[in-house]
Input
Amino acid sequence: MKNLKKLIILTGPSGVGKGTVIKEILAKDKNIWLSISATTREPREGEKEGENYYFLNQEKFKEMIKQNLFLEWAQFAGNYYGTPLSSVNAKIKQGLSVLLEIEVEGAKQIKEKFPNSLSIFLLPPNKKELERRIRNRGTEKEEAIKKRLSRANYEISASDEFDFALTNNDVDETAKRIIELIQT
Output
């Protein structure tokens, strides 16, 4: 049997294509489960409670922080994001590899707590393409876009702190490469 990694961290700047790559990974490997994060941000069009995120108000989120119910949590672009601990533990006990799509600060927290986890940073082909992707989503106002682009510069500078940094030029190839990393 292959030595599967049980906790996989996938991060990268907003707009790099994490969600698209993850859909491809999940379609190709049924032994990988995507952890569902909690957030205080408003749902985007088409997002569903318990499928894309657990949408919480700030009061509930802060109460969960006090009770240590998150594997990690961070504040980003004015909202809180976190990984509920109970569901991650349950899936690992079932023998699945757990894929965490989280932002850089949360990824660093997990890597500190779980040094054997596999951490992967997705890079855009270039910054111009990253900006194009963020703008083409059409989900945010100019001020939020500027915050995300500014944050992307910081996050990209931290990419060398991860086990692997992959440039997302082709979704299918990027997904295949990540599955290879998980299975080796």
